[in-house]
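Journal club side-thread
Mid-discussion, someone asked how the predicted structure for our own chain would compare to the paper's figures. Pasting it here so we can look after the session.
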Amino acid sequence: RLLDLRVALDEAENYLKWPTLIAEAEERIRSTRALANESKSSEAIRRVDMLESEAHQAIKNKNLDQLTRSIQALSNLYAELLMSRPEFWVGYFQYLCEQRSTMRDQSQAQRLIDQGNQAMQNNDLLLESY
């Protein structure tokens, strides 16, 4: 009986999660596609198309695990596309500059901030593979 109850509870929980996961998938598809289109990368656009198809197939089949995996893959691609943009790193650098007072080695932090500011002044924003 406990096992049957656990199965019933899992099914009820999945039923309640389902609309939220569908909305999350659609939002993740939209935002990832927007970044891919901005990047003008045919490979990124192709990957979004593939992941969108997988997500819609999971929705059609009511496959919670596959939809969760599709959302995670879309999130990973979104992060990859975002981190390939210099403005992301400029914003992150500015955030770190604001956090300088919380850093343990203040002199090293200041040296690195100075180097970063010099690189930005020289428009040296080349992104190496991370």
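Post-session note: The CA atoms of residues 15 and 64 lie 9 Å apart.
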